[in-house]
C-alpha cells in the first residue's frame, strides 16, 4: 500500500494520460513493505553505482542462474525498491559469463501439478519487471534460454556479449514458454524466426539476435557489463520523469493501434511541457550550454 501510494504520488504527469501498462497482475497488488536493504538476498546481488545507476547480478552459479521462485521474488523486490529511488535513473541486470539465465528452475517445476500451477498463477509475477518506470537493460552473456530469454525480453534494452545464445527450448521439456516468450519474441524477430525457436528449441546467436532486432548492440564478453553501465549512465543523465515518459510511450505500442498510440504519445509529449526539465532542456539548447536537469 505504501509503495502504491508513493508510486502514485510520483506520477502526477503521467496520471493525466491513459495508463498504458499491460493488463494483468497489477503491480500494486504484489508490492511488499519497502526497505532499502539489499543485503539479505541470496540469489541476486544488488549494487548502486556512480552515475545514478544500479547493477543487479543474477547469482545462482551452480544452477546457471535458473530462475527459481526465491530469485524472482528477490528480483521483484529489488527492482520495485530501485524504481522508487530518486537516485537511480537506470538498472542493469546481468548474469555470469556462462549464463544470463538458463530458464525457469526445471527442478522446482518438475513435480508440480496443473491445479497448483493454475491457482498460484505460476510465473504471472515475472512481468512485474516490465511494469516499473525506470529503464532496465539486460546485459546478456552466455545462455539466455527459456525464462532467461523471456526475462531479457522483459527488460527495455538487451545488450549481448558476442558469445550469448538465446532460445526458447521449452518444447524439449514437453511444455511451452510461460513468461511471454511466444508473444514478445514474435514482436522482436518476426513470426518465422519466433516459430523456429519455439517449435525446434534451436538457439540463436548474439549476432543473429542483433540482426533480427532482439539485441540492440553486441560487445566483447568482458566489456559487456561496463558498456551496459555506460549506457545506463547516459540514460540516467537525462531527466528521470522525461525518460520514464519516453519509456511509457514506447511500451504503449505493444498495447495500442497506431492511431491510439500516436495520440497517447502526443498527450505525453504535451505533458512534458508541465516539467521544469523540458524548459531547461530547450533553454540550454538556445543558450548553447549543457542542461542541468532537476528531475522534475
Ligand atoms: N533449471 C534447473 N537447473 C538447471 C537449469 C534449469 N533451467 N539449467 C541448468 N541447470 C543446472 C543443471 O541441472 C546442472 O545442475 P547439476 O550440476 O546439479 O546437475 C547445472 O545447472 C549445470 O548445467 P549443465 O550441466 O546442464 O550445463 P551444460 O553447460 O552442460 O549445459 C545448458 C548448459 C545447455 C544451458 C543446459 O543446462 C540446459 O539445457 N539447461 C536447461 C535449459 C532449458 O530448458 N530452459 C528452459 C526452462 S523451462 C522455462 O524457462 C519455462 C518458462 O517459460 C519460464
UniProtKB/TrEMBL annotation:
GO aspect biological process, one term: fatty acid beta-oxidation
| Alphabetized Pfam families for the sequence | ECH_1 (PF00378)
Entry's EC annotation: 4.2.1.17
A single GO CC term for this protein reads: mitochondrion
**Which Gene Ontology molecular-function terms are recorded?**
enoyl-CoA hydratase activity
Family assignment from sequence similarity? Belongs to the enoyl-CoA hydratase/isomerase family.
| Family annotation (Gene3D superfamilies) | 2-enoyl-CoA Hydratase, Chain A, domain 1 (3.90.226.10), Lyase 2-enoyl-coa Hydratase, Chain A, domain 2 (1.10.12.10)
What is the native source organism of this protein?
A: Hondaea fermentalgiana
**What protein name does the entry list?**
Probable enoyl-CoA hydratase, mitochondrial
| Record-linked InterPro entries | ClpP/crotonase-like_dom_sf, Enoyl-CoA_hyd/isom_CS, Enoyl-CoA_hydra/iso, Enoyl-CoA_hydra_C
Q: Which UniProt keywords apply?
A: Fatty acid metabolism, Lipid metabolism, Lyase
EC top class named in words: lyase
Entry superkingdom:
Eukaryota
List each coiled-coil range: none
